[in-house]
Amino acid sequence: MQKPKGTYDVYxxxxxxxxxxxxxxxxxxxKYHYEYVRTPIFESKELFHRGVGxxxxxxxxxxxxxxxxxxxxxxxxxxxTAGVVRSFIENKLYGxxxxxxxTWYYGPMFRYERPQAGRYREFYQFGVEVFGSNDPxxxxxxxxIPVNIYRFLGLKGIKVKINSLGDEESRTAYxxxxxxxxxxxxxxxxxxxxxxxxxxxxxxxxxxxxxxKEIMKNAPTILSYLNKESEEHFKHLQDYLKAMEIPFEVDExxxxxxxxxxHTVFEVEADIKExxxxxxLCGGGRYNxxxxxxxxxxxxxxxxxxxxxxxxxxxxxxxxxxxxxxLDCYLFALSENEKEYVAYLSNLLRMNGFSVTMDxxxxxxKANFKQVERLNPKFVLIIGEEEVKDKKITIKNNHTKKxxxxxxxxxxxxxxxxxxM
Length: 421
Ligand code: AMP
Fold this sequence. Notes:
Elements: H1 12-31, E1 35-36, E2 42-44, H2 45-51, H3 57-61, E3 64-67, E4 73-76, H4 81-90, E5 101-110, E6 122-131, H5 136-153, E7 158-164, H6 168-182, H7 191-199, H8 214-217, H9 228-243, E8 249-250, E9 262-270, E10 280-286, H10 290-293, E11 301-307, H11 308-317, E12 329-333, H12 339-351, E13 356-358, H13 365-375, E14 379-383, H14 385-390, E15 392-397, E16 403-407, H15 411-420
Parallel strand pairs: 1-5, 7-8, 12-13, 12-14
Antiparallel strand pairs: 2-4, 3-4, 5-6, 6-11, 7-9, 9-10, 10-11, 14-15, 15-16
Helix pairs in contact: 1-5, 5-9
Bound molecules: adenosine monophosphate.
Adenosine monophosphate binds next to β6, β10, β11 and α11.
């Protein structure tokens, strides 16, 4: 049996690397005072069609759709925003007294893409969604999150690229200009772009096929179509980023693959030569109409999603690994007779905050010390007949090689002191 195409298994060092990053993300979200949210992995198909947009590649070509046993049309989530917005509306979080509502999520997403480096069919995203504020200070704050996570993990060469798609009025003016510009060239474009020309000409700028064509390169750019309010929004965002000492560049080619963005859009790239298109580690933007589109009251929103897999390969390219948390105690019994006491002690130690593993197979003394060499615990606790009788445990400090007999009632205190030394 083999895993499905475009998926991967996690074990060994990869598992440690992932768990460390997950901890960093959780800790960072506490510092930013964001709340954790979790939504179902499958939702109604309609949610993604309305939420992500009918003209995006994600929805037109890449969803895993299925009918459940009652014939309902379902979709495995291809991204996190639509579900979080649905939950925000359904649970009436817009009614909270403490707006904005700042949320974060983490979990698997599914897209039927052609698997290649940095592109999987099941992949993990960490993302944030903030509801109820149009203040560009929030846009700057959420851009600072991936930047600070990458910095904390030690990734160098991070590039932040920002752009603005303006508000509805600005985008309507821009779309009109794009249509006029592309009209004479429609027949030279790919089949998808012909559809995009009708449905949403902004999408054409994101085309992977026509990307290199001169007509694309010379197309009008959005920033000259921003109205005054949109211009102000974008200017303030840049001022806040400067104040937060986050270097960035304005890149008018960034329009992002989803239909719902307004004002700010951004991407964070790893500056790694051989990374190609997978250099985009993270992307996001503002979506001031999405809550309303999905049936909620008019509420501003802004968010981003970062891919775990690309972050892992960027760390690998830069040889950044995170050390495994070390093991505190390894326990073994000299015979079957003392195993119950070992079971008791392991529980006592774990409940007092020590990490513990033990001999489960009644290995020989020699084989147990071989295992100690591999696992490198701080302490080895050896339990024989006498230890059980006297409730005195033989403890070997595996690093200093000091060996002592300690009464059970002093065990925790002793280990705490030894660890501090
Ligand atoms: P998107 O949701 O398309 O804006 O993507 C946001 C981030 O998710 C990207 O920058 C990638 O890091 C990651 N990502 C998107 N699609 C995939 C995929 N098929 N495989 C792995 N990572 C992905």
